[in-house]
């Protein structure tokens, strides 16, 4: 007995309310169509995010520079320090920013040396972001994952050393 003839498979149809792009599919599978990038945005629109982030940072720095964190009652106490007596990597950060706002670099280093050391890194990352934005280049990852791991390891090492007896000079 001969095998029955194969019935043709019907082509899938979209629902009536779906808009289907015109043109043949490019990638594997039904419904895959080429990516059409949006039109380029104008320079002021592209610069909005870097400028707003810099303005926010400047506003926060101005506030901390005007309202002294050394006087009690203006800022909350670090919860880790309050409940465990240990300094976190950010302890002394507000006093460090206050000292930097008043151009007192030795005092800022005494409050949080790691924060002072990271300021050039933050400046380079922001500058790279702004330049890429001006040039219209796509957003990419800021750093190599190895550098991110090194930064996290540095933060952990700083937190541990500043709580040990020989690292007391790093405590705020």
Overview of the molecule:
This protein has helices spanning 43-46, 48-66, 79-84, 93-101, 105-111, 113-135, 145-161. The longest helix is centred in the last third of the chain and has 23 residues, at 113-135. It starts with 42 loop residues before the first helix and ends in an 11-residue tail after the last helix. Helix content is 49%, strand content 0%. With 172 residues, the chain is an all-alpha fold. The chain contains seven helices and no strands.
Write a compact overview of the structure shown:
The protein is built from seven helices and no strands.
Characterize the quaternary organization of these chains.
single chain
Task: Round the mean pLDDT to the nearest integer and report it.
Answer: 83
The class by helix and strand makeup works out as mainly alpha
> Rg to the nearest angstrom?
28 Å
Write the layout of secondary structure elements.
Layout: H1 43-46, H2 48-66, H3 79-84, H4 93-101, H5 105-111, H6 113-135, H7 145-161
Helix pairs in contact: 2-4, 4-5, 5-6
List the main descriptive attributes of the protein structure presented here.
7 helices, single chain, 172 residues
């Amino acid at each position: 007995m001969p095998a029955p003839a194969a019935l043709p498979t019907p082509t899938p149809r979209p629902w009536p309310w779906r808009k289907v792009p015109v043109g043949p599919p490019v990638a594997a599978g039904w419904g895959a169509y080429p990516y059409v990038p949006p039109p380029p945005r104008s320079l002021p629109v592209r610069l909005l995010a870097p400028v707003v982030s810099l303005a926010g940072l400047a506003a926060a720095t101005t506030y901390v520079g005007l309202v002294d964190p050394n006087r009690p009652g203006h800022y909350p106490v670090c919860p880790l320090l309050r409940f465990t007596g240990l300094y976190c990597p950010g302890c002394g950060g507000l006093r460090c920013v206050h000292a930097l706002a008043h151009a007192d670099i030795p005092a800022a280093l005494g409050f949080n040396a790691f924060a002072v050391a990271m300021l050039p890194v933050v400046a380079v990352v922001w500058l790279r972001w702004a330049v890429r934005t001006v040039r219209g280049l796509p957003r990419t990852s800021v750093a190599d994952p190895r550098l991110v791991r090194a930064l996290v390891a540095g933060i952990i090492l700083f937190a541990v050393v500043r709580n040990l007896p020989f690292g007391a000079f790093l405590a705020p």
